[in-house]
Amino acid sequence: MNKLIIAMMLTMACMASSAQQKTSDLVLKFQGRNVDIAPFFEDFPYSQFSLSDDGQKLFFFKTSNQNKLQWLDITKEKDLSKATDVVDLDFSKRNCWQPVYNEKDGNVYWIGDENNEEIINIYRSNLLSPKPEKLTDVPYIYAWDFNPDKTKIAYVARLAQNEKRLDELRILDLKTGSDELVCQDKPDFRYTWGDVSWQPEGKGLMLLALKDADRTYANIIYIDTETKQTTVLTDPSKPGSYAGTSVMDEWISGDECFFFSDQDGYKNLYRFDRRTMKAAQVTHFTSDIEDARFVTIKNEKYLFVLQSNPIETSLMLMDIKTGKMLYQQSSDLSLSIGAVQGDQVSLLANSTSVVFQIVKAEVGKKSMKLSVLFDLPETLKDRLVHSDVDRLSIPTFDVDPATGKTRMLHAYLYKPKNPLPKGKELVMIESFYGGNNRYNTEYQIFNAAGIAVLSPSPRGSAGFGRDFAAMNDKDLGGNEIIDIIYCADYISKKLDVPAERIGVFGMSHGGYATMRLMTFPGEVNGNKAHFKFGFGIETAGFCDIIYQHTHSNIPDWTALEAGDPVKDAAKLIDRSSLYHAEKLTGPLLLLHGNHDNRVDIEGSRLMDRKLTHLNLPHRYVEFEGLGHGIKGVDNNRKFYYECFRFLDEIENGELKMK
């Protein structure tokens, strides 16, 4: 008996030691301080939340030794650590996009791949038997959605790219497994990313299509499932972004529905009547609609509308018959619709300083009441939020024609609660995809290390209408780079931090922008600007635009953002940092996964080889098996370890310019 007790005690001690070792591995060293990243990957390792249609089941990803898709019945349990795996898969080694629960068959459906290589298909797994089932076998799926009774899925398959492109609209029967071809697209209207909306009796399908494969001309089309006839519902002569164009899942009736388009400059609501095959604009906002769902108040149907920008969200109720907004109220949270039951709307919420909440909106005819259904303990929030956030408006180089005054750029400044000492301060500036009113783990980890983060929205950013988002179309590496340089100069003066202590960082497009900023020749589009960034950290970026175009699974992106790789070759070469590498202003850290098909790993390897040849200070770090992004706790630990190691070596003079 004594031997058994001793053995049990030894086992428990070993387990405790192992747990302690695991936690200590997540305490990183930087500038003589401990940076504990365990709260982000052990205490709250959760992200990408969604709700079942009834609002009872919460789905999310848990980052641990594996990246798991999990679910929790929040009517019975509020502790996320009690969640159950949806499927027996490690999503650090594969992609899982848009997981959706189908209450009719108890399965969770998603589109994803098997090796982080973005060969995207439809998969499912039953909550009672977490084994995956692959339902399609195509190179890529653009769009998909269930019919109203959840027995079928309509999906758009991309079978080839560029001049060999061929896209199909298909219907998959979830009971029989039959997979029926509805029709193929044509060169004048190419199918694209988005959702599919079913006419209630299955007589037709609405989806997105690009006129002449041009991303700036996104349209809504209706396809009759019997005649196969395609009708374009939006004006094909008007520009519209695919980000600002979408369909509503639920129809008003068998003949009427709403959809969204930003052809007037902002994402607004349109009404389609299948009897006349005509569409008409309903709202005329000058701020984008985020989403809209039907609510039922005393047996009468209304439309609950979210309107958002990177600063606030407006919640509105619309009379369906007249299109009139009955009332509106604002929130400083970033909100998205999770589920609707009658007059109850469950909203998923976060902000620059709010990690995660579920907010309930009780919608009445004259007002709505908001209350928090789910929140984190205050002690956990303290471990996850390390910044005080200021909203800034930063002047850039040109005049805004709407105001006739200097254009102002929106930005958030994340100030660490425990900053580095005077003279040792560091500021990191997000090179692209910044300015969002959302909780950001990367910012908070840098803040925990005492580093300030500036998150600006240069031209080309979403949230300020179609025209602002399109300002960098065909101008990649152009004026949006000048915007970031002006932001860097502004924050250097505001915080009294010299340029050598200000760095730039970003992923994907942001990785490209980081390298472009670090090697900027001083002028573009006749505009001159200069800022000598002290360092840069790029993740999954590209240094040669033409190489990116010919080695990416989304070549239409570079065609939109940069231009034609043949006609505009000279411009694209000049805007590629690979050909200006000798102008590097400070040490550069390059990080990339070797299974990345979005941005080929050569996007970083080429720069590594060029900087090595030039004998310029940099480091290249490759992540085995990762695709486009950093997933899994071990990979995240490696990522932040390399970032802090890099910054320490700069501070210690081990990596410096000659």
Verbal overview:
The chain has 658 residues and is of the alpha+beta class. It has twelve helices and 41 strands. It has an eight-stranded mixed sheet with strand order 32-33-35-34-36-39-40-41, sandwiched between helices. Strands 15, 16, 17, 18 and 19 form a five-stranded antiparallel sheet that branches. A four-stranded antiparallel sheet has the order 3-4-5-6. The longest helix has 23 residues, at 2-24. 45% of the residues are buried.
Q: Could you tell me how far the N terminus lies from the C terminus, measured between alpha carbons in angstroms?
A: 69 Å
Major beta sheet summary: 8 strands, mixed
Percent helix range: 10-25%
What order do the strands of the largest sheet run in, or round the barrel if closed? 32-33-35-34-36-39-40-41
Q: Strand tally, please?
A: 41
As residue ranges, the low-confidence spans are 1-21
DSSP helix count?
12
Tell me, briefly, the overall form. globular
Query: What percent strand?
Result: 35-45%
Mean pLDDT: 94
Helix/strand class: alpha+beta
Radius of gyration over all CA atoms, rounded? 25 Å
